[in-house]
Write a sequence for this structure.
């Protein structure tokens, strides 16, 4: 699927996100990275434009667009600043949409509109110190009244979110899902991670001490909620990876046109030209996989494998091609004078969160081989 095949609404949404990314996000990205600053005002502005709830129905405060439009927004925001991109991805894909999919009508009507309008932020709290890829090993517990005790680790938006989707083991030893609001008794962020990249996003540890939680979905359905959320979330991270890689390509291409060596632009040398050609080809392939997964989700069709394929491939492309952009820029690429090194740092985590690349391969292999892949 190419840009020419997008609907008018999809093209308009992409253009709106692109203009905002270029005019508002990109100018501040380097400073946010240096200062490890969470640009809270950006998300309020995105909310005013309808970009914090792109694929949320209008009757719940969203823009009422489809999942592909949402993916287009994530790609454009991540092209300007990957930290902003992941904040929106987790807020929408892992925080807001599960409330619509698994909450009661009353919960959706009460909780979703402020999120879709950018008045509040959402977070997804599954990972623990000893429960990452093995999500079922979580130790956080909830009693019969929904009071939660435990700790969560590496929670995106953790220090700034208002609504948290929390997974805990209930009295019957089943994993259930709960909603916890910012300011709940006994609940607090306790540490902000000092990360390699994505320094404009919040990644925090959380502590719960008999904190009141509101059940989301049926008792014991927590793993089903979590896995369904991750299926869609992987598409969003693939879009983030595509955006980062696209930024690296644009930087390297512009530099190759301007930088002179041996009396001509370095883009005229085959070694550089072929490098850029390979970058563009891989990025377009990653984009195609990502858009395919989004279209399947829009159609209500299974997309577990396709989302895993998109994330696996796009994250590898982002990590590899941001490195190639540094190579094109040479010594300048290794300095903070140009954003190539930031793209490189930001790209790596796309191979880790929302399911590592190793887990994506496992998902794909199990679908391909069936029970043989479980031995």
């Amino acid at each position: 699927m190419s840009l020419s095949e997008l609907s008018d609404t999809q093209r308009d949404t992409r253009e709106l996100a692109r203009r905002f990314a270029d005019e508002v996000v990109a100018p501040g990205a380097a400073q946010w990275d240096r200062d490890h600053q969470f640009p809270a005002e950006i998300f309020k502005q995105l909310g005013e434009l309808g970009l914090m709830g792109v694929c949320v129905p209008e009757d719940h405060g969203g823009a009422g667009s489809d999942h592909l439009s949402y993916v287009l927004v994530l790609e454009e925001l991540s092209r300007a600043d990957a930290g902003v991109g992941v904040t929106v991805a987790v807020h929408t894909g892992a925080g807001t949409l599960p409330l619509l999919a698994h909450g009661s009508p009353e919960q959706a009507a009460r909780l979703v509109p402020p999120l879709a309008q950018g008045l509040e932020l959402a977070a997804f709290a599954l990972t623990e110190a000893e429960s990452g890829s093995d999500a079922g090993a979580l130790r956080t517990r909830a009693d019969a009244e929904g009071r939660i005790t435990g700790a969560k680790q590496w929670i995106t938006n953790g220090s700034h979110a208002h609504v948290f989707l929390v997974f805990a083991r209930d009295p019957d030893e089943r994993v259930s899902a709960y909603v916890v609001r910012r300011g709940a008794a006994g609940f607090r962020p306790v540490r902000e991670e000092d990360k390699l990249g994505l320094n404009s996003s919040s990644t925090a540890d959380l502590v719960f001490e008999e904190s009141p939680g509101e059940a989301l979905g049926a008792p014991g359905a927590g793993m089903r909620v979590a896995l369904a959320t991750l299926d869609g979330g992987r598409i969003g991270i693939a879009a983030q990876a595509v955006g980062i890689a696209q930024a690296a390509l644009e930087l390297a291409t512009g530099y190759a046109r301007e930088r002179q060596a041996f009396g001509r632009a370095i883009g005229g040398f085959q070694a550089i030209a072929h490098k850029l050609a390979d970058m563009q080809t891989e990025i377009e392939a990653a984009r195609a996989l990502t858009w395919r997964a989004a279209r399947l989700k829009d159609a209500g069709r299974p997309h577990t494998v396709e989302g895993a394929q998109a994330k696996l491939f796009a994250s590898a492309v982002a990590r590899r091609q941001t490195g190639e952009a540094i190579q094109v820029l040479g010594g300048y690429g290794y300095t903070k004078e140009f954003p190539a090194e930031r793209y490189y740092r930001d790209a790596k985590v796309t191979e880790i969160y929302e399911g590592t690349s190793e887990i994506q391969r496992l998902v794909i292999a199990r679908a391909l081989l069936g029970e043989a892949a479980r031995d």
The beta strands are 122-125, 141-142, 147-156, 163-169, 175-181, 187-192, 203-212, 214-216, 260-261, 264-265. The chain has three domains: 3-116, 122-220, 223-369.
